[in-house]
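Notes to self after the Tuesday call (sharing in case useful).
The group wants a holo model before anyone commits to mutagenesis around the pocket. I volunteered. Ligand is iron/sulfur cluster. Logging inputs and output together so the record is complete.
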Amino acid sequence: MKIGGYLCTGCGIGDRLDTKSLESVAVREGRIGFCKTHDFLCSQAGVDMIKADMAAEGDDKVTKAVIMACSRRAKTESFNFGAVPTARVNLREGVIWIRPEGSEHDETTQEMAADYIRMGCAEVKAMQQADASGEQGKNNHIMVVGGGITGMTAALEASKAGYYASIIEKSDRLGGVMGQLKQRQPEHSPFQNPQDTGVAALIAAVEADDKITVYLNSTIAKTAGAPGRFEVDIASTVGAGTHAEFGAIVQATGFTPYDANNLPEFSYGKSPNVVTQLELEALARAAGDGPIKRADGKVVENVVFVQCAGQRSTKEGHLSYCSGHCCATSIKQAMYFKDSNPDIETTVLFDDIRTPGVGGENFYRSAQDKFVTFRKGKVSTVDVKGNELQVNFKDLILDEDAQMGADLVVLATGMLPNSGTDIDTMKDKDANGEVKVSVESILNLNYRQGPDMPQLVNGFTDSHFICFPYETRRTGIYSAGPVRRPMDAAQAQTDAMGAVMKAIQAIENSAIGRAAHPRSGDLSFPSFRKEGCTQCKRCTVECPFGAIDEDEKGYPKYNEARCRRCGTCMGACPVQVISFKNYSIETVGAQLKAVDVPDEFQEKPRILVLACENDAYPALDMAAMKRNESSAFIRVIPVRCLGSTNTIWIKDALGSGYDGVVMMGCKKGADYQCHFVKGSEMAHVRMAKIGDTLSTMNLEADRVAVHEVAITDIDRAPKLLDEMVEVINRVGLSPFKF
Amino acid sequence: MTTAVNQAMVEKYKGNFLKEVTDNVEEGNWVKMCMQCGVCSGSCPLGPHWDHPPQELFMMIRANKREEVLSSTSMWMCTSCYNCVARCPRGLPITHIMHGLAHYGKRMGMKPKNQPTEKFGQMFWDNLIKKGRVNELKLGLGLYFKDGFAEGVKVSMGKQKLGMNMMKAKRMSPMEILGGHGVSDLSGFHAMLKKAEELEAARVGANTDAK
Ligand code: SF4
Ligand code: SF4
Ligand code: SF4
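Result:
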């Protein structure tokens, strides 16, 4: 049972540093079993040497390792020793690549390397081997909420992958909005004509699939548990309810069409000849193969489509966003007319034609080819003139007011997500202290944080739209289709596949106690020391993923499979009783205490940098690759998420003579980049109060800085460190050096 | 002055100018494919000097501004630089459409008054069809004197050197003033032109004054 140290002398480390002295720092000061050097540690020979030590018997067996070589972001495959606690000491990107050569720098550079080795040794001693919790087993069944094309596609995809699915549909039929359409936008080359919706075929496939169960007329009365062990009460409006267990959930609840009664300026409601796109579908379906008629039976000869009706608008009651499908929908609907009779006048008044997705542009061109007229114009009003309509608009190309007659006007109105209760606004309570819920909940989660998924913007349950689109803030529950963000049918079906894949991952990961995205595969999980807990509930409130409930006595109740292992709870806990086996108040605290803080007469400041390991730390690494010089006085400790930063670390650092602290987390807010969505935001909120601590210690406020840093901030990140060096130069060294 | 064929066209297309352009203007069937991105207008070296750059002309066609489009000087200004054609993301043969529109406007009797390009074009054509060969001397003099005698003398004096050089290089002969050279089968050439005119007239479905 030993801690093994392995010092690499390759990549210039051996040339730039006095490795003999570093070895003795590791053994004498770091107090580890031994320190071996190798001139190419990540080579097969180097790695085999380490593995042989780990495979040894008895006292010689290495059970923890300190790799003193490159950044933890490099050579991850080579230095992956499974569950064996391993610390990575970053001598390459962290020291030699950011320090200039020359004898005048050697002393401070060497001190930097020695500190990092002391830190690595201290960290590994505080680490323990992480094991799975064993809290849940494997449940191969996915609950799909919503029986539209997204839901049906999700269920079929799950079945194809060998999993079971149950579709919970509120209405008495499958098909959703798509089932109300005459045709859909083409999916295949040459993308010229509308095609069959395919809903009938999907329904037939769902019904024929013995791995899929359909609950019509059903809603969810209660969802409890966690990935791998969701317990759901399904309520039915026609019969008795059911109880079922699921491994994961896909929410495909779709959208509600925007209420066009909010658009009196377009005479909606005043004339039956002003209709929404969905209402036009009904007219088109009623017409069958014949000409499309208005409500009064007149055959339509001149139709005008008004794009962005009540959308992409800043007006009160309008939608601010683009619903993504309506341009292509108008194109398709104009073709309903043109294909039946090319003499029908069809005009699309648009601001921008947006046809996302494969073939969208071809479809647009095809409509132009069919003589659908596209005019760039902004419609102000629609007047009713007897049986006819007059569309008043501003021609945006000719820059003049214009009018057009029409016998039918179609409004391209937007979509509103069916995401259930907005748990962020439901905090308002009524006079009796009851929570006011304006919109019915969909999932009825019994989570402490509220009955539905958190929403991101405009009520959509989206997550990060580029990096992890399906990951909601409720682990094991994935949203797909227009409830996630506005989209068309083709995107909704792709979405369904993506969400199901995520659901399957969640099932498989939770079955063996591993974390889901973004620390996929991580076996550590947080636990808390009950004796110390003051039941303050900070952890339950701050956990971005709603992983923590409360037990009957008001203590936090962890649901490990819901946890993403960010450590935000650990950062939040005012009495520091939350920890992971391999990441804790101790593992970081021991590192910052291991740094050798020189007395003030040496004039060598120490700056602690707590950098998010996902973005800020790699940004610093990349700056190092560019050989961007940085101060020899910084000591960087990567953290899982800035959210895991406990203020005790800052206090400890300032109290033990550090001169400044720089914290680097990801961008927060609605367009966040934080891997844990709210972690960085929580840290910023927490650190906003650090000023009090500083003033009680009589320290200058600018000794502590919190920054949002993106992975692309390769030039900016080191500059932020330089800024802190300047601050220290200005305000002087800390008076707390002993 | 509008022509009978113009009246016929107006009646035939009843306010659907886009259709009229599609059917009758050279490459006019492309106009409907414009997506109003404005790349052509932004690329045209003459863009800022026109009343209506190409994108706008195409929008005016959709907005049924027949009179304004056909009598516009804009398309006469096109220098055939092909910048727009090279850049149009929709692949419209814009240069050709410009010339097509100019030609169609002229045929409808709606050409702009005193438009130099138009005047010169006519002069060139008249000169050419006489003998089947361009008579440079007459064409040059015609051009110089198009704005009156005094102006003509002034311009001619200014271009003296050019004329002398052309003569030296045998690109122009002073004898041309007497009638000049021509194609060997002049009557055949004229028959050809007549046939072409007939075909064109048949295509448009009416007689026009196009020459
Ligand atoms: S805050 Fe993070 S680590 Fe703590 S329970 Fe929530 S997800 Fe897990
Ligand atoms: S070809 Fe004519 S219209 Fe096109 S850019 Fe050149 S001058 Fe302008
Ligand atoms: S570049 Fe082409 S598509 Fe764009 S405005 Fe001009 S003609 Fe239209």
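Two things stood out.
The pocket of iron/sulfur cluster (ligand 2) is lined by residues B 43-44, 46, 54, 78-84, 94-95, 98 (CB under 6 Å).
The mean pLDDT of chain B is 87.
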